[in-house]
Design brief:
single chain; 2,3-Dihydroxybiphenyl 1,2-Dioxygenase, domain 1; ten-stranded mixed β-sheet; alpha+beta
Length: 177
């Protein structure tokens, strides 16, 4: 009887712990699939031809220190050439690393070209980060959007989930006077 009660106590306390884990509604919808590539011009041209759309505009981000880029706990001046193709609710994001250490260059070195991350627009960034960290997923790379109106955080989930997870979080709208 004592064993049964002890087992029941463990089950109940385990269920209570699971209930306290925050599940952001944004984690139910993939908004971005990101492909790291060596030559963004050639890659976006091939994709545009396949999809029958115009080749997207390519731009290069500001230096990492200007957008508070931190990679594996250290500031980095990495930049990335990027382009986007909207595909319904999902955006295909193309990334070509440019200088400095980053998760983009790490992916290219370790795995070659291909899908690097899935992006999710979360409502509560800090609680979502806490949930993933409690599940044993560490932060890999973070920064601010070039427009300085939001934050992105890559979580090091490649080994556990097969792909990096990106949490996207836009700042609340600024009040205008």
């Amino acid at each position: 009887m004592r064993r049964y009660l002890l087992g029941l106590t463990i089950l109940v306390s385990g269920a209570a712990a699971q209930e306290t884990i925050y599940r952001d509604p944004g984690l139910k919808t993939v908004v971005q699939v990101a492909i790291v590539c060596k030559d963004i011009e050639a890659t976006t041209k091939r994709w545009a031809e396949l999809l029958g759309v115009e080749q997207p505009t390519i731009r290069t981000t500001r230096p990492g220190r200007e957008v508070k880029l931190v990679y594996r706990g250290r500031p980095s001046d990495a930049r990335v050439k990027m382009a986007f193709l909207r595909m319904g609710q999902v955006v295909l994001e193309f990334l070509e690393p440019v200088g400095g250490p980053s998760s983009w260059s790490e992916h290219l070195e370790k795995y070659g070209e291909g899908v690097q991350h899935l992006g999710f627009q979360v409502q509560d960034l800090e609680r979502s980060l806490d949930t993933l960290k409690r599940m044993g997923v560490a932060e890999l790379h973070r920064g601010r959007y070039d427009s300085d109106n939001g934050t992105y955080v890559y979580m090091d989930s490649k080994e556990t989930l097969g792909v990096v997870i990106e949490l996207l979080h836009s700042d609340p709208p600024r009040k205008t006077r």
